[in-house]
Amino acid sequence: MDKIKLRALSLEDAKITYKWQNLDNxxxxxxxxxxxxxYEKEKQWIEKSILSNTSNIVFGIERLDNCKLIGLSLLNNIxxxxxxxxxxxxxGDINSVGKGYAKEATIKTVIFGFNKxxxxxxxxRVSIDNSPAINLYKKVGFISEGILRECxxxxxxxxxxxxxxxxxxxxxxxxxxxxxxx
Length: 182
Prior knowledge:
By secondary structure, this protein is an alpha+beta fold. It has a single domain, classed as 3-Layer(aba) Sandwich (Aminopeptidase), CATH 3.40.630.30. The two termini are 15 Å apart.
């Protein structure tokens, strides 16, 4: 049933991820900035992520059938006092989009946040025109909280973002199977 695993990033991954960071759809929906990302800058970002895992955790999403890195999953701005973090994900490997990998990675990242970090609330922000992502988040149990109006400026226009969240108790109701929590 498992198709992917979440794993730690290595500096070698920058050779792959910097290319993803320069894809138009990743820049639009994930990074939110128009600037090209160099290999050196991506390597520096990964190194920073590797060395500091207190407020941000970055997972590589790796396919089990071929051990290929296909995307990233993140818990950002982790606040262990208030037990909250922001979730983000993208599948950078174009041949792995639409095959259920993002759904599985989302669930596994949320399980990690609630079970291993003791979080109570995980939230995300998603462009309102990114309906595949919104549908995915709804399927796994995220609930809409509202709209951040014109909060991003991309491609010459202002973009609204939807805020969605999931509480631990909501997740536990949906995913009652104890084996998921290991």
